[in-house]
Amino acid sequence: xxxxxxxxxxxxxxxxxxxxxxxxxxxxxxxxxxxxxxxxxxxxxxxxxxxxxxxxxxxxxxxxxxxxxxxxxxxxxxxxxxxxxxxxxxxxxxxxxxxxxxxxxxxxxxxxxxxxxxxxxxxxxxxxxxxxxxxxxxxxxxxxxxxxxxxxxxxxxxxxxxxxxxxxxxxxxxxxxxxxxxxxxxxxxxxxxxxxxxxxxxxxxxxxxxxxxxxxxxxxxxxxxxxxxxxxxxxxxxxxxxxxxxxxxxxxxxxxxxxxxxxxxxxxxxxxxxxxxxxxxxxxxxxxxxxxxxxxxxxxxxxxxxxxxxxxxxxxxxxxxxxxxxxxxxxxxxxxxxxxxxxxxxxxxxxxxxxxxxxxxxxxxxxxxxxxxxxxxxxxxxxxxxxxxxxxxxxxxxxxxxxxxxxxxxxxxxxxxxxxxxxxxxxxxxxxxxxxxxxxxxxxxxxxxxxxxxxxxxxxxxxxxxxxxxxxxxxxxxxxxxxxxxxxxxxxxxxxxxxxxxxxxxxxxxxxxxxxxxxxxxxxxxxxxxxxxxxxxxxxxxxxxxxxxxxxxxxxxxxxxxxxxxxxxxxxxxxxxxxxxxxxxxxxxxxxxxxxxxxxxxxxxxxxxxxxxxxxxxxxxxxxxxxxxxxxxxxxxxxxxxxxxx
Length: 646
Known about the structure:
The protein is mostly helical. It has two domains: 88-334 and 343-497, no CATH class; 501-620. It is built from 26 helices and five strands. It has helices at residues 3-27, 31-46, 55-71, 88-108, 118-131, 148-156, 166-191, 197-212, 215-222, 229-247, 250-263, 273-285, 289-309, 311-319, 321-324, 326-333, 341-354, 356-361, 383-402, 410-423, 442-461, 465-497, 501-512, 532-538, 555-563, 588-597, and strands spanning 521-524, 547-548, 579-583, 602-607, 614-620. The chain has a five-stranded mixed sheet, sandwiched between helices. A hairpin with a 6-residue loop joins strand 4 (602-607) and strand 5 (614-620). Helix 7 packs antiparallel against helix 8 (197-212), helix 7 packs antiparallel against helix 9 (215-222) and helix 7 runs parallel beside helix 10 (229-247). The protein is globular and about 85 Å long.
C-alpha cells in the first residue's frame, strides 16, 4: 500500500468514532441525563400498572420529563437571539380582555347549562372515586375518558363551598375557558411575529378578543365537560410548533413533544394532535440538505418527550385495549363487535370520506344539531369570525408564497386535521358535525381570524389609527351579538329537552334538611326518564342512587326490600320516618299504586321545563303504631301544563 493510500485509510478509520460521537451529540446534549430520563420512564410505566398511579410512579414520570428535557437539550439554543416580548400596552389590553372573558364565563353565563345530564354525573362519580382514593390512569366507564379533568375537579371540590355537582363542573370549565384567552394571545402573536412586534401584538389581541366572545368557545366553557381543555392544549402546541418550524430550536421541539404527550390525557380528540406535529415536520424540513438533517433529529427528540408524557396511558392501552379504544371504535366501526377490524374499517372508508364535507361545512353553514352541546343547526362560527377565517386562510397562503414563511401553512393544516374527529363518526352520521369532537379546530380558526383582523387593523392604522380600532371593535361586537343569539338558542333547546334534575334535587334536599334520611327518598324510574344519580348529585349526595328502575315493579315489592334492609342503595333507610317519592307524570301506573299503598299521602304537581313538563311529589307521613284508620284514596293528579320554553 502506498503512503497516500495509508494516510487516507488512517483518516477514515480515525474519523468513524468521531463521526458517531458527533451524531450522537447532535441528538443527545447530555447523555447521562437522557439515560436517567429513560430509566425514570420505565419506572413510571411500572408504577402505573392495573390502571392505578402510584406515588413513586407519578414522581418518576414527572422527573423523567425534566431529565429528558435536559438530556436532549441543545446548548446552541442559548446562544441564539431572544424573541421580542409584547409591549406593556398589549399586556394591559390582554388583562382587560381576559377579565371580560372571565366575567362572561363565570358570572354572566352562570345559569347555563340549566340542568345536569348523565354525562355530568359520570364525571362527578369519577372525581368522587379519586377523592376517595382511586388514582386512575384512564376512566373506563361510559365509553372511556381521559383523567386530567377529573383530577382537577376533585381538587376544586376541596375548596370551601364547592361540592361535586353541576356548579363545580361548570365553574371548572369556565376557569379553563378563561385561561385559554391568554393562550390565544400568545399563539396569535407567534403566528404574526414575522411581521414585527406591533403586528404581532395586534394579531394576538384580535385573536384573544374574538375568543373571549366566541359563541362556540362560550358554550364549551359552560358545558361542564373536559372538552374545553383541547383548544387550550392545541394553542400551546401551536405556539411551540410555530417557533420550532421557523427557528429550529431544539427546546421548542422538546416543548412540543411535552405538550403533545400530556395533551393525550385531556380528551379523546387530542390523539389527532399527533397529525399536527407530523404536518410540522415537512414544513421544518424544507430547505437545504444540511437543514433537513436537523429537523429529523429535533423530531426524534420531540417523539421521545411525547412518548414519555403518554407512557402511563400507553401502558393502559396495552393492558386494557378494549376499554381504551371503545369510544373511537364504536364511532368509526359501530356498536357491533367485528371479527376483522381492518375489514370493517375498509368497509367504512366511503362513509368516512363522506363525513369530511359536513365537518368542513360546520364552520360556516350547518353546525351541530345536538341540543346538548350547541345551538342546533347554527354554524360553529358567527358570520364575522367566519368571514375573517376565510381572509386569514388567504393571507396564510400569501405569506407562504411571498415571505417564504413555511410556518404560515401550519395553522391551516391544523384546522383541517382537527376537523377530522367529527368526520370520523362514520357509524353515527347524525353526530357529524360535532361541536365537541371538532373543538380542537376552534383554536386554529380563531388564530386565522385574529390574524386577518390584526392585518386589517394594521392596514387602516397606517392612515388613521382610530379607523382601525373602530373597525376591529365593530367586528368583535358583531361576534359578541352572534354569541348572544347562539347562547339564547342553546338555552332554549337545552331547557326543552333536559330533565328537571335540579328541581328534583331541591325537593330531595328540602326533605332531608329537617334531619330525615336520604334513604327514604325514592326516584321512581320510567323509560327515558330522569337519572336518579343526577338527582342525588344536585341534592348534595353525589354517589348515591335513590332510584327505582323502570323494571322494579310493583313498587310495594321494592319498598318491602328497603324496609327489610335488603336494598343496598339505602343503607340509611328509616322505617319510622316519612317517605318521599318523586314520580314522572307519565307514570300513571306508579301513581295509581302509590295512591293505593298510601291513602294518606300528599300529592303535589311541580311544573318544570323539559319533555315531561314537570314531576309529581308524593309525600308519605311517618308510620304510626297501631291500626291505620280508613282514609279516602287520593287520585293521581293530572299532568302539569307544558312550560314556557327558553
